[in-house]
Amino acid sequence: MSKTIVNSAINSTNLNSEMQHTNTIKPFYKPIAKEIEVFEHAYKNKIPVLLKGPTGTGKTRFVDYMTYKLEKELITISCHEETSSTDLIGRYIIKGAETVWIDGPLTKAVKKGAVIYLDEIAEARPDVIVAIHSLTDHRKELYIDKLGETIKAHPDFMLVASFNPGYQKGFKELKPSTRQRFIALAFNYPNEKDEAEILVNETQIDASIAKKLVSIANKIRNLTELGLTETVSTRLLVDAAKLIHTGLGKRLAVRVAVVEPLTDDTEITEALSDLCDLMI
Predict the structure, then answer these.
(1) Which helix (H) or strand (E) segment is 102 a member of?
(2) CA gap 280, 249 in Å, rounded
(3) Which fold has domain 23-186?
(4) Domain spans of the chain?
(5) Which pTM value belongs to this model?
(6) Which GO molecular function annotation, any one, does this entry have (predicted)?
(7) Of 39, 174, 183, 226, whose CB neighbour count within 10 A is largest?
(8) How many CA atoms lie within 13 A of 221 on its CB side?
């Protein structure tokens, strides 16, 4: 059985969720600080960027916006506990009578000069971190052990990763030696004015309702005694606002889009629902 190395467009049967696109429609993004300026300078200097912050605070939207602004192709990998270096770099597959090499998403990005976004990188297997090390220092190269080849990164290649330090604290964390290979941007929930503006722009909901949704979110975020693994994200508020904008009752929309995703505890669910009913 012969082996053939090709730059194939065939999707390998990997375990990640891979998305590859070039934005043609400008994504809405509300700058919170100097993150746009920092990212642009990181891109000019080819310095990897680490986005850290809670779920639903705009990390992925920010990457979408920046690749649109820079007119770059974006390849996104949603990492999880089964994501391995093989999934990112590539593998041999059987095709007819041949064994054919298929480039993984990381290899494609390195070759063509795309931006690769490793979402929730701390969730991936340790060999993923090892695989990207040579791309995050002065070498800017990718070693493919199965081929015995080293590929120099395209001048336009950029590596961006994200993780949620609150959720992964004490469970899956990035080693200091890995973190220091990136510059880092911290994301958090916007202030009330900015978050309400985001809801209006994303869903065209009435500004008064947007303000009430943000007030509900901030109230729940401050209820630390509930011991919620995650609290109300801007993403959940956007979902609730969309439902309300299309005619679903406000209280029902908040319950199914904001309260129910937070917990399976019946008592906490009912208590939060009662609280939200009073506020909207």
Answers:
(1) strand 98-103
(2) 10
(3) Rossmann fold (3.40.50)
(4) 23-186, 192-278
(5) 0.84
(6) ATP hydrolysis activity
(7) 39
(8) 18
